[in-house]
Structures
1.
Amino acid sequence: MNLRGIVAVSGRPGLFKLVGQNKAGYVLESLDAQKVKIVANITTTKLASLEDITVYGEDEDLKLTDVLANMVAAKGEVPDAKADPKVLKAFFSEVAPNHDQEKVYASDMKKIVSWYHLLKDLPLFNEEAPAAPAEGEAVKEDKAEKKPKATPKPANAKAPSKTAQPAKKANMTSKKGV
């Protein structure tokens, strides 16, 4: 399951795909049928990548990707997000058996189920996540290509004149009142 670039935005329903970034913020495209593009302000908007989201667990936290994978493998139908909270709790205890029942609320379960229904038909939901390089592997190409870079001059910068003398320091002591 490849959820790289899929984010949840605080204060907005649904999920978004990170398309790019500009001076004003992140350019996001909604994953619903309308495909609305928005620019989320960098300083005020909180984004949460679905790869990084975890669910409270009794022993250790559960990754959202694992919970979604269990939903795919669930024998029964995945309930609707508007289903009765008791039905959602029973389903969630099946797909995430070690979740902390005191910390994971029905609203959290509804949100995860609604995300599942948004993602299940997308092609990225069925493709493998790109593998990150292992810790022991060092990328030798990057180290070989690192050369000191010359800093480019701005186009409007003037070259110093040969006759220009450095400015003399002004005497900052005052002789008043002596």
2.
Amino acid sequence: MKRPFIILIVVAVALTGFLYSRPKVVVKDEAKANRDKVAENKPASKPEDDGHGHEEEASQAPKLSAEQQKQLTALQQKLSSASDKNAIYEQIAELYVNANRFDSAAVYAEKIALANPTTENWMRAGDTYYQAFTLALRQENVQSFTEKTRACYQKVLEKNPRQLQAKTNLAMTYVQSDSPMQAIMMLREVITEEPNFEPAIMNLGVLSMQSGQYAKAADRFKQAIRINPNNLNALLGLGYSLIELGEKAQARTIFEDLKKKVKEPTLVEEVNKALESIK
């Protein structure tokens, strides 16, 4: 499958777990590429070091607005005299998340977890690094965020081996590794433990789609829809799988239904393209 929609599905589905507790973020291919552009100018302010050698990683896109940059500068100035740095880290992390700068947000989420190593804090750090990992294109960034993501989720699983979202996301970091089958095995372990765990089912659907096993992908997406009829990503994946299986009439029905439900411009555009392709 070479159509651009595979990127859209991979991004949307890979972030399913994080999106349970965050606003939905759909990213165009061009926007993904921008995240990995090399900075042409030095940062306006020196990133705060947490004492462990972890400094904020530079990112040029999307850029902070003037108001966000002003807020960031003020928060960084407070850090030097703050008795409770975690409270400031929390605000900085949230600012970066709101700006879709997950690479930078993850640095501060990790600082919070290092200072207060609860399962919840490590989970948040892992989720945010996972966002950065999913959106990265340059191999050095993928490798860096992969290692960070795994380290955070391992901390979670040490404390709570039944944290299935952590295990699901951890599995997906192995998809492009030297051990891709490890991803499949871990996801299967998750659904063995919890057969209706939607994120793991969705990710298995995506992996089947990427490997050209569209019948298996369709079955996974149908399963996800039975669990959650409002899962638009599952409907999208099912529609594309049916196209590849030659079931164009069924696919058309799905995309016509999706057209009534989706509001995000990128998804609307993709649904329209799909309908045009099966006329």
3.
Amino acid sequence: MALQDISNIENIKLLVNTFYEKVQNDDLIGPIFNEKMTGRWPEHLEKMYRFWQTLLLEEHTYSGSPFPPHKHLPVDQAHFDRWMEIFTETVDSLFVGKLAEEAKVRAANMAYMFNYKIEYFRNQGNQ
């Protein structure tokens, strides 16, 4: 079956669910996610559906600030590189097209910005 582009909420859910299943089983980033998300995975996944639905489909179902919950995570560039590697593999295995490419660009920009901000806060000694 030929791959299609991301085009609806069902595609978003497939992307998010497949990605986070891989994340949960990853040796490097899995333990961090699993510790932080214990008992809260369904809530997190719902939030991620709305986040990506808003970004990619322009259906405005997400509101909030994505960075603050991440600012004290024990992560560095290697973690973001792995997150991005899994995200890219997941998108490429499921979809092809303009929105699939947009998802990867948006994810890369977020990974870069989150890593930059986390390093900044860490270096400032902010608690």
